[in-house]
Design goal:
Elements (H helix, E strand, L loop, with lengths): L1 H7 L19 H13 L20 H7 L1
């Protein structure tokens, strides 16, 4: 939960957002599966009111290069 939340918080545009996660080999596959499922379930886009999306627009153009 924390890996997904803190990597996506404020569309990843915070100075403390997660950029890398080091995962021990025995739990790697399960970790990737869970993160993938959680990220796939996030609602993204233009908000139509409070609580309608989890990931909004990027507001800092250089961040697009970082994400890309």
């Amino acid at each position: 939960n924390a890996a997904v939340y803190y990597s996506m918080q404020n569309s990843g545009q915070t100075c403390i957002s997660v950029e890398r996660v080091y995962v021990e080999a025995p739990v790697y596959d399960e970790f990737v599966q869970k993160v993938t499922e959680k990220v796939a379930a996030l609602r993204q886009g233009r908000t139509s009111g409070p609580g309608t999306v989890e990931v909004g627009s990027m507001t800092f153009p250089p961040q697009l290069d970082t994400v890309d």
